[in-house]
Amino acid sequence: MRPNRILLSIALVVVALVIQVSVLARLHLPGAVPDLLLLTVLGLAMVYGHVGGALVGFGAGLLADLAPPADHAAGRYALVLCVIGYFAGLIKPENGRLKSATGPMAVVVAAAVGSTLLYAGVGALVGDTAARHVGLPGLLFSAALYDLLLAPFVVPAIMWLARRSDNDPLAETSPAAKAGDISSGWLSSGTGLRIGGQRGLGALKAKARTRSTRVGRIKGVKRL
User: Fold this and answer.
1) Distance of alpha carbon 212 from alpha carbon 207, whole angstroms
2) Cα separation of 46 and 86, whole Å?
3) The pTM is what?
4) Cβ-defined contacts of 162-166 (< 8 Å, 24+)
């Protein structure tokens, strides 16, 4: 990852973790706690891609494992967010622009449910059965509901900041532009003319004007 991405990811993850531990965790909502850290990882993963999403997820999860008042084994949430960040980064479009909000919202619901199940599954492997006492169905429903309600205010802002720090990656060559380049190259190979946007057309017009000027001069000589 580039240095600007690393610095922005660290800043956003630290801010999200502080807000989650000091504010959201103290709301005492029924069921799960709104996972602001998860939404931050999702927003960065949908801009940075699957590799960047996995790295950001692992770092954010490890920080959450070590930050108080964590009461679980270190590395547990790091594994969960690493997997979630990887799969969330797979939906990143080639041109960096999402066509609608349906995809990101579906990713938020899937990530909330998947992270809860994966966290409970890893906990069962290490002997932590807290999810059974809380009630897994209610935990899944509340996690998906809270994250879905919080996502419209968090994920777009995170994605905007990530793109801003990358100096507007949406300016990358779009598929339509690539198609235009391919078609112009195909025309140039078939006709023997060098076509490059308006350059080829301008060159043809210039040649036509030169020819007409020469013809006018010749006609003028004949008239004399």
Assistant:
1) 9
2) 10
3) 0.70
4) 162/5, 162/8, 162/43, 162/44, 162/47, 162/48, 163/47, 163/96, 165/4, 165/5, 165/8, 166/4, 166/5, 166/47
Q: Which distant-in-sequence residues (6+ apart) come within 8 Å of 67 by Cβ?
A: 17, 21
In 10 A of CB 15, how many CB atoms? 13
CB 44 within 8 A of CB 56: yes
Cis peptide before 69 (omega within 30 of 0): yes
Task: Tell me the C-alpha distance between 65 and 37, whole Å.
Answer: 12
Q: Tokens 């960096």, residue?
A: 96
- pLDDT per residue as tens digits for the range 144-186: 999 999 999 999 999 999 988 887 545 344 434 433 333 333 3
pLDDT tens string 110-155: 999 999 889 888 877 877 666 566 677 888 899 999 999 999 999 9
CA distances from 124 to 31, 60, 61, 146 (A): 19, 22, 18, 24
The number of beta carbons lying within 10 Å of the beta carbon of residue 106 is 12
